[in-house]
Amino acid sequence: MTDRFAPPATAGCRTAPVLKERGQHEVFCGLTGIIWLHRKMQDAFFLVVGSRTCAHLLQSAAGVMIFAEPRFATAILEETDLAGLADAQDELDRVASELLARRPDIRQLFLVGSCPSEVIKLDLAKAAERLSAAHAPNVRVLNYSGSGIETTFTQGEDACLAAMVPSLPEATAEELLIVGALPDVVEAQALDLLERIGVGPVRVLPAPRASDQFGVGPGTRIALVQPFLGDTLAALERRGACHIAAPLPFGEEGTTLWLKAIAAEFGIAPSVVDTVTEAPRARARKAVAQAADILRGKRIFLFPDSQLEIPLARFLTRECGMEAVEIGTPFLHRRIMAPELDLLAEGPVISEGQDVDKQLARLRAARPDLTVCGLGLANPLEAEGLTTKWAIELVFTPVHFYEQAGDLAGLFSRPLRRRDTLKVGPHDAALASS
């Protein structure tokens, strides 16, 4: 029997040359990670120390109604703060204390740095330490940077989770720690699969509540579900935890290999995984096949945006039959990406970082069937006759594990179907017959 998940006939891309670009780049800032993190951590609050622009960005990105009371806000730096006429630390203490008095349900308070707070060198680490001491043991105050000066938007989650690691207690028990924020329904699917395979106990970072406390230490095994968590992985490894190298759980192949890598770490045979996952694997294959009809043979170009690009390219080329022209990623973490690069057939340009003008020139020369890019590039490229897919949808849409494999493929097939529909629509038909 042919192995569905055999490595590519070529050598893979682990040792392929990487085009490193350091020019103008177009991405959202790390503050946008709050949009999914504040939903995931039920007793946490994210207080951004920034400008009115930061506040408008979060409100617009989250689509929060004026009467809603979300678990994030912006402590706005006024002109007096920026000019040094007021003590920003005293002002921050006052705002945080008023917030905690009004919201006694808060158990974790994150002070989130922004471009303005970093420009004036406001020490949020000192503020977090001071506020933690003042409000302990009811509230734990942490800080991280969401600035978009030199980062991409998914690194906001990485910085947040990395900030949580030092406060986790020491532990020696052998446990699996799933690292990365997932929608609740997707996380439940993952935990159910692991339980039926026989892996346990299983912890999740971030946990829904601060009271869901767990330890970390030499017995902790780390399974990443997002590729952009390099700083969090390093922080956990400094605590003695061990990383399970595996492809990310995108599509049938990535999910199966992710589960088998975890099972092997806990001494469970691959045949057990095959038995437990037989039905969901069949559903995933069927769902992907429906979308793959239009994707097969099509060429795709991925701009650097979220660090999801390499796992997505592996899924699209191996399970959907697409051809990758260029795979751009904001940052290439080689150790995390090694299992993915091994599965990618040689051929595409792999680029790290961005020089947007040079990348646009390569795109226009290649004229791919589908371009995955940010919102700022999509409309101009559509006007040039190129079919595009918004990269940010891949972060906000549930796409992990078997039950979402068809939805993931559908995100890429829909722009092509829309393009074909518009080409043969009534208006075009009328023009063609006139």
Automatic annotation (TrEMBL):
Pathway: Porphyrin-containing compound metabolism; bacteriochlorophyll biosynthesis (light-independent)
CC cofactor note: Binds 1 [4Fe-4S] cluster per heterodimer. The cluster is bound at the heterodimer interface by residues from both subunits.
Taxonomic source organism: Roseivivax halodurans JCM 10272
Function: Component of the dark-operative protochlorophyllide reductase (DPOR) that uses Mg-ATP and reduced ferredoxin to reduce ring D of protochlorophyllide (Pchlide) to form chlorophyllide a (Chlide). This reaction is light-independent. The NB-protein (BchN-BchB) is the catalytic component of the complex.
Matching InterPro entries: LIPOR_BchN/ChlN (IPR050293), Nase/OxRdtase_comp1 (IPR000510), Protochl_reductN (IPR005970)
The protein's name in its UniProt record: Light-independent protochlorophyllide reductase subunit N
Residues engaged in binding [4Fe-4S] cluster: 29, 54, 115
Keywords linked to the UniProt accession: 4Fe-4S, ATP-binding, Bacteriochlorophyll biosynthesis, Chlorophyll biosynthesis, Iron, Iron-sulfur, Metal-binding, Nucleotide-binding, Oxidoreductase, Photosynthesis
